[in-house]
Structures are given as C-alpha cells and as structure tokens.
Design goal:
The complex is a heterodimer of chains A (114) and B (115).
Chain A: E1 4-7, E2 10-13, E3 19-25, E4 31-38, E5 42-51, E6 54-57, E7 65-66, E8 76-78, E9 87-94, E10 104-105, E11 109-113
Parallel strand pairs in A: 2-11
Antiparallel strand pairs in A: 1-3, 3-8, 4-5, 4-9, 5-6, 7-8, 9-10, 9-11
Chain B: E1 3-5, E2 10-14, E3 19-21, E4 24-26, E5 32-39, E6 46-52, E7 60-61, E8 64-69, E9 74-79, E10 88-96, E11 103-105, E12 109-114
Parallel strand pairs in B: 2-12
Antiparallel strand pairs in B: 1-4, 3-9, 5-6, 5-10, 7-8, 8-9, 10-11, 10-12
Classes of the chains: A mainly beta (114), B mainly beta (115).
C-alpha cells in the first residue's frame, strides 16, 4: 500500500531531551516536507526537501533539524525541545515531476513537551 | 511568498443541504495550484479536490466542486448533499513551481454537519 509512515503517533517528552520523529514513504517521491499544525494557525511548513541531500527552510524552521540521506526517509529532529514546540506534526511527500501533484500526508505525530 | 486566507473559522450545515467554504489567496505568480484538504476527527489529511490556475473550468469531484475566480483570487469549496461524514476541518492550500517549492495553508474551517 502506498503510504507515508510517521512514528510515533504520540510523544510526551521533557524540555531539552533530544527527540526524533521518523517519516518514511514508499512511493519514490522526490519531494518531502514537515508541517506543524496549531489551533487557529493552520499548517505551517517547517522544512522541505526536493531530493536526497537537498533541504530548505520553510516558514518556521527555528528549533528543528532535518536530514535527507535516503530518498524514502526524512526525519525531523528536535535537539532541545521546548514547550512552544508542543504541536501536531505532519510529514508529507509529493511526486514533484507531475505539475499538479498534491501532498500525501502521514497520520501525524502529537508531541507534548513539558 | 503566497498567503491563503480562510475567513470562516466555523460553519454548520444541515444534512443533505449545500454549504460553501470560502478561501482567498494572494500570489504574484502565474503558474500555481490550489487544493482543498479535509481533516476528520481521525486527524488524517485527505485531498478533496485540486485546481490548476491555468484551467478556467472549475474542478468537480462527486459532491464537491470549486468556484475558482482567478481575477478575484478566490477558491471556494461547495459541498452538495452534505453528509455526516463531511464533518471535518477543511484546509485550503496553494503551491507554485515557478518560485519556491512551498505549500501554503489557510487556518482552516471547521464544518459540522447537523443531522
């Protein structure tokens, strides 16, 4: 089944404890991206990647890191999480070669930082 | 950069009735794409419908259709014969391949279908 897989679904952590949210897609998509969803703010893009070893900042990159060593994986790293990073996170991918390609989303990760 | 505005935080509609969700966008680019996504309580993001800016014909997908007014930069979603399963948050989004590679989302409209 074609899908974007995010793990974990729920994560509770404490301030300053490094964490990684994994994202993997099995559709051979070039484009991958991370979003955070907050009430009243919609989805905001954190980072995106056009291909392996190519990453760019979105609108809210502060406090986050990403890497794209393989085409299928695009982990989101919070080196020192803070309470303002409590949010719902989505990973998404897209076959960028087709001009009207939509995003395919993972099921989201609910992160709570205390 | 592009901006997407959804001015209706919450809406409700009676089952079987028709409802229209509004979306406006702002872009200086000529080659862009617009989308509506649905997020039910399961929080999964589901593509509802898409529109290419260069196409004048409004997109339709079963009970879902759009009213794309390019000059007014408006992209509203019409849901006909509303069903209980349409209860969800709806997000309007835009992207462009000309400059940048970002997707921009509105703040969402929470739609409740009343039995």
């Amino acid at each position: 089944e074609a899908q974007v897989t995010q793990n974990p679904r729920y994560l509770i952590t404490v301030t300053g404890k490094k964490l990684t949210v994994t994202c993997s897609q099995n559709m051979n998509h070039e484009y991958m991206s991370w979003y955070r969803q907050d009430p009243g703010l919609g989805l905001r893009q954190i980072y995106y990647s056009m291909n392996v070893e190519v990453t760019d900042k979105g609108d809210v990159p502060e406090g986050y890191k990403v890497s794209r060593k393989e085409k299928r994986n695009f982990p989101l790293i919070l080196e020192s999480p803070s309470p303002n990073q409590t949010s719902l996170y989505f990973c998404a991918s897209s076959p960028w070669d087709r001009r009207n390609s939509p995003l395919h989303f993972g099921n989201g990760t609910r992160l709570t930082v205390t | 950069a592009q901006t997407v505005t959804q001015s209706q935080p919450e809406m409700s509609v009676q089952e079987a009735e028709t409802v229209t969700l509004s979306c406006t966008y702002d872009t200086s680019e000529s080659n862009y794409y617009l989308f509506w996504y649905k997020q039910p309580p399961s929080r999964q993001m589901i593509l509802v419908i898409r529109q290419e800016a260069y196409k004048q014909q409004n997109a339709t997908e079963n009970r879902f259709s759009v009213n794309f007014q390019k000059a007014a930069k408006s992209f509203s979603l019409k849901i006909s014969d509303s069903q209980l399963g349409d209860t969800a948050m709806y997000f309007c989004a835009s992207t462009s391949r000309d400059t940048g590679n970002q997707f921009y989302f509105g703040t969402g409209t929470s739609l409740t279908v009343i039995p």
